[in-house]
Design a protein that fits this description.
Layout lengths: L1 H22 L15 H5 L9 E7 L2 H6 L3 H8 L2 E7 L1 H13 L7 E4 L1 H10 L7 H6 L10 H6 L1 E2 L2 E2 L2 E13 H7 L7 H11 L7 E4 L7 H11 L5 E2 L2 E2 L4 H17 L9 H9 L3 E7 L4 H4 L10 E4 L12 E9 L6 H11 L2 H8 L8 H4 L13 H10 L11 H16 L6 H18 L3
Parallel strand pairs: 1-2, 1-3, 7-10
Antiparallel strand pairs: 3-12, 4-5, 6-10, 6-11, 6-12, 8-9
Length: about 450
Amino acid sequence: MKKSLKQWVGVGTTVIMAATVVAGCGSTPETSKQPAASPGATAANAKPFAGKTISLVAANHPWAEAIKPLLPDFEKETGIKVNVESFFEDQLTQKLTVQFTSGSATPDVFMYRPLQEGKLFYKNGWLQPLDDYAQKAKNYDFADFAKSAVGSTTVDAKLAGIPIITEQEILYYRKDLLQKAGIAVPKTLDELQAAVKKLHDPKNEMYGFVARGQRSPLVTQVSSFLYSEGADFTNGDKAAINTPEAIKAFTTYGTLLKDYAPPGVLNMSWPQAFGIFAQGKVAFLTDANSLYQNAIDPAKSQVADKVGFAVMPAGKAGSKPYSITSWGLAMNAKSGNKDATWAFIEWATSKDIVLKTQQKGNPGARASVWDKPEGTTGFPADLVPIIKESSKNGVDHDRPTVISVGEARDAVGEIVQKLMTGETNIQPVADKANAALQAIMDKDKTK
């Protein structure tokens, strides 16, 4: 730890200072207040940011719990004091919105959900673009981050944050049931539907498939079905959820839930879906890999030793799961401590620290860490190749990339729910939803 910190502080400080002149806005550049230490001075144990204090607002999340014990080492090497506050997700968004709306210079750095509030925060001028910092920082190796993860944190071609937690949609399945029935692990959506139908036995409380059925929560999970059929929520600045490819994807997902899911699926989000899968009553489940503990933890699952993992089954366009940044680190555009804030972000997302946080079960975005045996110790051995393959083939969003995310999710989710409740011709439903999504997108342009 100590060696790696000195390496990046020694070679990176001058770059950090120069980058702030280019990228900084809304405050006086720190370079006029805190001269950059030379590599030689740093080697002599100088602290380039001695006396500086930055504020970090974090979510109540395992990544935050993993990073907190490492902060004393960062503070010792840099002289930066990091004050941390933690909040539940909804409280976090509310706090950040209130702070930023008032023009506050704090927090300096914060955790955020790029696909949920990233576009809104960026459009409001609350996020400091980090392109110059990331590209010019020596030994940071920004190219090591997964392309899809970076795509999630990019808004209008600008890097709005740095990925810290990634997530992909995968297929969970019961190894024992497939083996007993002589069924191979499905590699295509057609094969999945056939296997689901064969294993569906509701009279004996065995259901073929489960996934999120609630109107808004289902949208992120149907996204991988869309991409795998060659569809997407939008095409440029046009809504695209009523195309033939989209209709096929919605129909596949909706039919699996309507015909082969347990009762009550219409009201299920991930806790309920994983709950009934863990009770041993379902053969297949599609959802986020980050939730795997709910399926294999003996304390939560009655089938913990019988669960297998597979990549998202392929449609016409191949296997195209979402592969996103679910949590990122961002800098307040009005921070008065931008150089010190970047120093923290650079450290927290460096290869050494990502290795340490990933060993605690936090899936990071650095390819080099996933390629190290010691970087995968926090995950089941048979899940690691699934994560790596999904990351390479994945799409960088799991919902419409708009400002009004909640409204957009409701519009999309309506299509699947109508099918689940018995609508046989969903083209008119999709046309109506597409018009609603287009109206949302057009309205967002005025914000």
